[in-house]
Specification:
- By secondary structure, this protein is an alpha/beta fold.
- It is 58% helix and 13% strand.
- The chain is built from eight helices and five strands; from the N terminus they run E-H-E-H-H-H-E-H-E-H-H-E-H.
- The chain has helices at residues 14-25, 32-41, 45-55, 62-75, 91-103, 118-132, 139-162, 175-187; strands at 2-7, 28-31, 81-85, 110-115, 166-170.
- Strands 2-3-1-4-5 form a five-stranded parallel beta sheet, with helices on both faces.
- Helix 2 (32-41) crosses helix 3 (45-55), helix 4 packs parallel to helix 5 and helix 6 crosses helix 7 (139-162).
- It is globular and about 40 Å long.
- The protein starts with a strand and ends in a 7-residue tail after the last helix.
- It binds adenosine monophosphate.
- The site of adenosine monophosphate has 16 residues, from helix 2 and helix 3.
């Protein structure tokens, strides 16, 4: 298996780039944001609980997200590997992911961080808000989400850097150029499918 974490602040392009890479490498995409939005749309108890946090731009509690990821990994048994998008967002989540993968005799192989300045992130998120229908894609939402990112998520980069797994790339280039940079990095570890 090959497991990649696409890391970066909200609006850095993790979802867009995951979609561009999936088929090239035959990987499965796991986005905790998408999974939580599915729970919200389904009005499940988890979704109702999660929405309170998401609407305030806060992270959903670790235990909720970790149990969701754990079931998802178990559900997709035959994967060539995973692209994790928007997870882990805290050091506790990163540790839990390491344990879950170790149990499956695998690990995180690479963490690629998309570097984008905060003004550009805010511009992208507000622009996305015009069409995404996401209640958190607003100018006020960005401020809280960035605060959560700086306090709780940014330390996750150091966690992986200590393991020698972190690569930082420029996320401000045009989408296709970022995809090319990512492919060059991933090619060092994994061959594209067919
Ligand atoms: P995203 O679509 O990845 O930007 O996530 C949207 C929102 O879902 C975030 O602002 C958080 O409130 C919540 N969320 C997504 N992934 C996580 C996670 N790994 N840990 C905690 N909260 C999360």
């Amino acid at each position: 298996m090959f497991n990649l974490v696409l890391f970066g602040p909200p609006g850095s392009g993790k979802g867009t780039q995951s979609a561009n890479l999936l088929h090239t490498y035959g990987l499965k995409h796991i986005s905790t944001g998408d999974l939580l939005r599915e729970e919200i749309a389904g009005l499940t108890p988890m979704g109702v609980e999660a929405q309170k946090y998401i609407d305030q731009g806060l992270l959903v509690p670790d235990e909720v997200v970790i149990s969701m990821i754990s079931s998802k990994i178990d559900e997709i048994a035959d994967a060539r590997g995973f692209i994790f998008d928007g997870f882990p967002r805290t050091t506790a989540q990163a540790e839990a992911l390491d344990n879950l993968l170790e149990f499956k005799n695998t690990q995180i192989h690479m963490v690629i961080s998309l570097d984008v300045p905060v003004e550009e992130l805010a511009r992208r998120i507000v622009e996305r808000g015009a069409t995404s229908g996401r209640t958190d894609d607003t100018a006020e939402g960005v401020i809280k989400r960035m605060e959560e990112y700086n306090n709780k998520t940014a330390p996750v980069a150091a966690y992986y850097d200590q393991q020698g797994k972190l690569t930082v790339i420029n996320g401000t280039l045009p989408i296709d150029d970022v995809t090319q940079t990512l492919t060059r990095q991933i090619d060092k570890h994994l061959l594209p499918v067919a």
